[in-house]
Amino acid sequence: MLSLNRQAIALISDHADPAADVGLEEAGGQNVYVRHVGETLALLGWHVDMFTRKVHRDDPIIVQHSPHCRTIRLKAGAETYIPRDRLFEYMPEFVDSFQVFQQQQGLNYPLIHTNYWLSAWVGMELQKTSGIQLVHTYHSLGAVKYQSQVEISPIANTRLRIEREILECANCVVATSPQEQESLRSLVSTRGQIEVIPCGTDTNNFRLTSKAQARAKLRFGNHEKIILYVGRFDERKGIETLVRAFALLKVQSSQNLKLVIIGGSSDHMPDGEERKRIENIVNELGMRDFTVFTGRIGHDILPFYYTAADVCVIPSHYEPFGLVAIEAMACGVPVVASNVGGLKFTIIPEETGLLVEPKDIKAFANGIHRILFDELWAKKMSKQAALNVNQRFSWSGVTIQLSELYRHVLARSIMHDQDWSYKMPSINRSA
Ligand code: UDP
After folding, report:
1. Confidence band of 426 (pLDDT split at 50, 70, 90)
2. Atom of ligand 1 nearest to the CA of 27
3. pTM for this entry
């Protein structure tokens, strides 16, 4: 339903379907970001259409999330899962499908917010033929990601080129942390406009509640020490480091330790291989009896797992933002995380969690040990963690900043104003 007094905007998220179940192969933070930003922008008065590639034949083309927010699945390549490193060749078809949809619906989006480099290419193509304003969020930056990888994808050069072009020609790029802004300036380009607006979390869903009740619901014992991982199975997530750190702790401690690993899809998907590899390591280390693999858990049940845990571990080699960190902290769970990317921005060391070097098994084991066995300090951190998220990372606060940015970009386009004198709105971020 498009109301005449609402400004229509498009969010483009090529591979990350905002209406999909998250936690499965390639469905993670970007899906959550686009969905929440879209839904909250609609509450702020915009009409929001979120475009993604249609992956399953049986999926509906349009999913209506609320009266003014919908997901639209466009034809671009076969209606089956295609890894994102092989999606670029289907992006011209994505552009065509987008334009056909616009014409059929009689719509014209004055502003498009693209997500990930493939969508950036789509946005720049659309910009060539119409006077749209372009805002972009990277979600993952090739120039940083490739530094932590041994095998570089054949698409790397194309991706790096497009990531530079979008920074230089978008009306504004949104960096989700000052660390990302720094990387963009030092590794991508000194030109182009950047504003820092973080990712957020649903603080009504992820919040402080009773640990005893969460444990009772999940049938965890009250005397267990629970170490939690939440996320996709992907080598760069560093689950192996956590599993090895857990085995080290288990050998040193007679306590009732349990490792709970949440996420993952079916065996025939590429992340099934990483899951099997991790399961094999767990078995080799003799940790099977103390480790639970739950598979994917939805955001309706996930808060119980966070609340039940004593510590949440994020051992990523590279993490552009890391929604799991703010979800865990919002539930009052201290975090032990790699000292990389957005995690440096969201976690306050010694106050809401600990940051250690990625892949350093001993450092992870020590960090987890410190939190598990200093209950007084852990309790203090729990409160500080929840407060930190409420003040800095609620979706409503974050989306108000995006909405103001869009208004500024649109106003400037009408005035043909070349001067970027934008000041981030001062808002009550815990609103
Ligand atoms: N997630 C989920 N269920 C799972 C595993 C993960 O809902 O079984 C969600 C998690 O809650 C978070 C997102 O997937 O919202 C992961 O985002 P993050 O930024 O941490 O990592 P990414 O997947 O983007 O690399």
Report:
1. low
2. 23
3. 0.91
User: Which residue's CA is the nearest one to ligand 1's atom 14?
Assistant: 28
Task: Give a yes or no: residue 429 inside a domain.
Answer: no
Q: Would you say residue 360 lies in a domain?
A: yes
Residues 157 and 32 in one domain: yes
Residues 382 and 398 placed together within one structural domain of the fold: no
CA-to-CA distance for 4 and 10, rounded, in angstroms? 16
pLDDT at position 126 is: 97
Q: How far is the CA of 70 from the centre of ligand 1 (A)?
A: 21
Q: Is 141 found in the same domain as 110? A: yes
d(CA 259, CA 230) in angstroms, rounded, equals 11
Q: Comparing C-alpha atoms, which of 369, 15, 395, 422 is closest to residue 200?
A: 395
Mean pLDDT of 233-245: 95
Determine whether 98 is exposed, middle or buried from the number of CB atoms within 10 Å of its CB (0-12, 13-18, 19+).
buried
Q: Could you tell me the distance, in angstroms and rounded to a whole number, from the CA of residue 205 to the centre of ligand 1?
A: 15
Same domain, 37 and 154: yes
**Domains contained in the chain, number:** 2
CATH at residue 268: 3.40.50.2000
Residue 422 covered by a domain: no
* Residue 22 scores a pLDDT above 80: no
Alpha-carbon distance values, 53 to 17, 49, 73, 84, 171 (Å): 7, 13, 5, 11, 24
Nearest CA to ligand 1 atom 11: 324
Pocket test for ligand 1, best of 17, 201, 324 (most atoms within 8 A of CB): 324
What's the gap in Å between 347 CA and the centre of ligand 1? 17
Domain membership of residue 1 (yes or no) is no
Residue 28 C-alpha to ligand 1 middle, in angstroms?
Answer: 4
**Ligand 1 atom closest to Cα of residue 234:** 25
Q: Is residue 68 domain-shared with residue 96, that is, in the same domain? A: yes
- Indicate the average pLDDT of the chain: 93
Tell me which residue range forms the domain holding 366.
211-392
At residue 278, what are phi and psi to the nearest 5 degrees? -65, -40
Pair (315, 400) in one structural domain: no
Distance 229 CA to ligand 1 centre (A): 10
Say yes or no: 239 and 263 in one domain.
Answer: yes
Q: How far apart are CA 329 and CA 201, in angstroms?
A: 10
Distance 326 CA to ligand 1 centre (A): 11
- What lines the ligand 1 site, CB under 6 Å? 22-23, 28-30, 32, 230-232, 262-263, 296-297, 299, 302, 321-324, 327
Mark whether 378 and 406 lie in a shared domain.
no
